[in-house]
C-alpha cells in the first residue's frame, strides 16, 4: 500500500502527545557515553532537544542531526542549533544521498525512537544499517533505542481491527502499519552480517505513562494516537478517520487505564543495541 510523504510531525504536537520520548533516554544515553571530542550522527533526531543535549557533552566535537520532517528540522534549527550542533533535512532510508553522513568520519551513530519508523520499508531496511556502518570510523559505534518486538501491541491490534471494521482487508490493514518492531535475534544477525560486532542487544518491556488529557485533545491517549497513528489513518478515506480514531481510542483506553489512579500506561517495549564497526 502506498503511503504519503505528508509531514504529520510538529514540535508542539509532539510535546503535547509524547514529550516524554526524548526524556526517557537515560539508559541509551549512558550507552552512548559521549566524549568531549566525539563526532556523533543522530538519525531521526526529531525537533532536536536530545541532539542538543549530546552536543553539549561533545563540547569540542560535532553533532549532526538528520530527520525527514521539514517541520521538525525547522524547529531544531531555530531552537537547538549551535556551533557544534547542526541539523539537516534528510530521509534516512537514503543516507547514501548525504555524503557528509556516509564519509566514514563519525565516532558514533546514534538514534532514539526513530528506527522503527525508518525501517518500515523492507526494501530499504538493511541498507539503513549498511549506511550507518559506512558513516562510522573503524572502531566507531552504532548506539540506538527503538520500538522492539511487541511494542504498543494494544495500539497496533486496535488500529488493525478498526481498519478492518472500516472496510480494509486484513492484508491492507497490516500494510498500513507504519512501524517495524524487531526482536534482538533479527537485530543481532542483521548487524553481524553487515560487519558489526554486537556488544549489547536487549529488549525491555517498559510501560510508559501517557501525558494527561488536555482541553484541545492534543494530549492523553487520543493525542498520542492522533500523532503516532497518523499513517494508519491515511489508509481510510478522510470522512471515516475520526470514527476509526474514536474506536481505537475506546479500545486502547479500556486496556491501558490503571484502576488505582486512572493513569494510562502504554505497553512500550524498547530494543537497545550497541554495535562496534570492526
Ligand atoms: C518519535 S520521533 C523521535 C525523535 C527524536 N529522536 C527523539 O528522541 O525525540 C521519530 C522521528 O523519526 C523520524 N523519521 C521517520 N522516518 C524517517 C526517515 N525515513 N528518515 C528520517 N527520519 C525519519 C520522524 O520524522 C521523527 O522525527
Task: Describe this entry's structure for a reader.
There is one protein chain. By secondary structure, this protein is an alpha/beta fold. It has one domain: 3-Layer(aba) Sandwich (Rossmann fold). Helices cover about 40% and strands about 20% of the residues. The chain has 12 helices and 9 strands. The strands form 2 sheets. A 7-stranded mixed beta sheet has the order 3-2-1-4-5-9-6. A two-stranded antiparallel ribbon has the order 7-8. β1, α3 and β2 form a beta-alpha-beta unit. α1 crosses α10, α7 packs antiparallel against α12 and α10 packs across α12. The model has no long low-confidence stretch (mean pLDDT about 95). The structure holds S-adenosylmethionine (SAM). The site of S-adenosylmethionine (SAM) has 19 residues, from α5.
Amino acid at each position: 500500500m502506498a503511503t504519503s510523504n505528508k509531514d504529520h510531525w510538529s514540535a508542539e504536537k509532539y510535546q503535547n502527545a509524547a514529550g516524554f520520548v526524548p526524556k526517557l533516554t537515560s539508559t541509551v544515553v549512558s550507552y552512548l557515553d559521549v566524549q568531549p571530542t566525539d563526532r556523533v550522527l543522530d538519525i531521526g533526531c526529531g525537533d532536536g532537544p536530545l541532539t542538543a543535549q549530546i552536543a553539549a557533552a561533545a563540547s569540542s566535537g560535532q553533532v549532526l542531526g538528520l530527520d525527514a520532517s521539514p517541520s521538525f528540522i525547522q524547529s531544531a534549527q531555530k531552537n537547538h542549533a549551535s556551533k557544534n550542533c547542526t541539523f539537516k533535512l534528510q530521509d534516512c532510508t537514503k543516507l547514501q544521498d548525504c555524503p557528509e553522513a556516509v564519509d566514514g568520519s563519525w565516532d558514533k551513530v546514534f538514534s532514539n525512537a526513530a528506527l522503527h519508523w525508518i525501517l518500515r520499508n523492507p526494501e530499504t531496511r538493511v541498507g539503513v544499517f549498511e549506511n550507518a556502518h559506512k558513516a562510522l570510523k573503524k572502531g566507531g559505534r552504532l548506539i540506538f533505542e527503538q520500538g522492539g518486538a511487541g511494542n504498543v501491541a494494544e495500539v497496533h491490534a486496535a488500529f488493525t481491527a478498526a481498519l478492518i471494521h472500516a472496510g480494509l482487508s486484513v492484508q491492507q490493514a497490516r500494510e498500513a502499519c507504519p512501524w517495524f518492531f524487531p526482536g534482538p535475534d533479527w537485530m543481532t544477525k542483521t548487524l553481524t552480517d553487515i560487519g558489526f560486532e554486537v556488544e549489547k542487544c536487549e529488549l525491555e518491556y517498559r510501560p510508559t505513562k501517557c501525558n494527561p488529557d488536555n482541553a484541545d485533545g492534543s494530549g492523553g491517549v487520543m493525542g498520542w494516537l492522533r500523532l503516532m497513528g497518523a499513517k494508519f489513518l491515511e489508509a481510510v478515506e478522510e470522512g471515516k478517520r475520526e470514527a476509526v480514531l474514536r474506536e481505537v481510542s475506546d479500545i486502547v483506553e479500556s486496556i491501558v487505564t490503571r484502576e488505582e489512579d486512572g493513569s494510562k500506561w502504554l505497553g512500550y517495549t524498547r530494543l537497545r543495541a550497541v554495535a562496534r564497526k570492526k
